[in-house]
Amino acid sequence: MRKIVVSEFVSLDNVIQAPGGPEEDTEGGFTHGGWTGPFWHDDIGKHFFEEMSQSDAMLLGRKTWQTHGGAFNPMPDGDPFGDVMNKTPKYVVSTTLTSTSAWRNSTLIRANVVDEIRALKEQPGKNIVIDGSSVLVHTLAQNDLVDEYSLLVYPIVLGNGKKLFPEGLNVSLRLIASEQFPSGVVLMRYARA
Fold this sequence. Notes:
Layout: E1 4-11, H1 42-53, E2 55-61, H2 62-72, H3 80-87, E3 90-93, E4 106-109, H4 113-122, E5 127-130, H5 134-142, E6 148-154, E7 173-180, E8 186-192
Parallel strand pairs: 1-5, 1-6, 2-3, 2-5, 3-4
Antiparallel strand pairs: 6-8, 7-8
């Protein structure tokens, strides 16, 4: 059975909203977009490629899919990040999208989300990775569909924003790996206990 790996940039106070830029996701009046920038280190990029090499599919919520697709789909062949993101099959969960033409290699999941994702896990293959997608991550966690959390924990407290773990979730995890990067970011990988 395939594993679902939630791979997130997360602040010390559990925020995953808009790590990449100020305009990425301002929902709820969020004004801290781009909070990961000052902590970039090339080892974080290396971690991305390692994680993607262990995966052969991505699972995304609509907003994250649209943001990623807008950034990666226009990239020309030969861009290392673009090639990985564009060639990887993607499953986007949305009740409002009618087409996946905005980002190549995408398939739409519109209904029976939990059952459809369980069926994806039953298919042969490597890991299915999900990032961003806070609403979808909450649904997966609440339905015991997350096998691992791969968290890049940033040494910053944001005070507000969309959270990785939903209110009321009670789950036991065990640490399976950790690594500190020179910029103060710590990779923590957890599996279900």
